[in-house]
Amino acid sequence: MLWMRKVIGSIIESNDGKQTRGSVSGIMSAIPENYADLLHTTALAHVATIGPNGEPQNNPVWFDWDGEHLLFSQTKNRQKYRNVRREPRVAISIVDPANPYRYLEIRGKVVRIDEDQNNAFINAMAKKYINQNVYPWHNAGDERVVVIIEPEHVTKMG
User: Fold this and answer.
1) Which residues contact 123 (CB under 8 A, 6 or more apart)?
2) Which of 20, 55, 70, 102 could form a disulfide with 149, with the two C-beta atoms 3.0–4.6 Å apart?
3) 106 close to 47: Cβ distance less than 8 angstroms
4) What confidence category does residue 35 fall into, taking pLDDT thresholds of 50, 70 and 90?
């Protein structure tokens, strides 16, 4: 699976260097054009889920955007993983690192949870966020997954 896709006009370029012509789904158009840059920064995404007793659970994560979905990594022993398996609705906020009064909020649902084969996704995020080829905090026995979110509603400010 390809993890990093850039959208350049109507050309979609994957991290393996292949390019295809076409359009990305209507979701990208739901992201205001003047806020789409936030999806390609090293800002953290604050992901809110619903806990087992209905309480909110929120924490920052590294993320990627594939042109249609927001993706983040999680280990199977975390509460957030259990939360999204039980209740797929999430809210995500991404604050502009250059302007804390500019942000994007995405509400959506988890549409898929994939195994992170050979830690490929978390390693790609380590490269993006801390310029390291391998995620340095991996613990023996960690089982990583990639949580894939489809945006359904977007708000913005700033």
Assistant:
1) 133, 134, 135
2) 70
3) no
4) very high
Look at residue 79 and tell me if it is in a domain: yes
- Its domain, for residue 30, covers 26-157
CA 136 to chain centre: 20
- Residue 26 confidence (pLDDT): 44
Q: In what helix (H) or strand (E) does residue 72 lie, and over which residues does it extend?
A: strand 70-75
pTM: 0.81
Order of strands across the sheet that contains 19-21 = 5-8, 11-14, 19-21
Residue type, 27: I
User: Count of domains in the chain?
Assistant: 1
Does residue 147 form part of some domain?
A: yes
For the beta sheet containing 144-157, the strands, ordered from the edge strand earlier in sequence to the opposite edge, are 56-61, 45-50, 89-96, 99-115, 144-157, 70-75, 63-65
Dihedral-angle region of residue 102 (phi above 0 means left; psi in -120 to 50 means alpha; beta otherwise): beta
Residue 42, in any domain of the structure = yes
Bigger pLDDT: 119 vs 1: 119
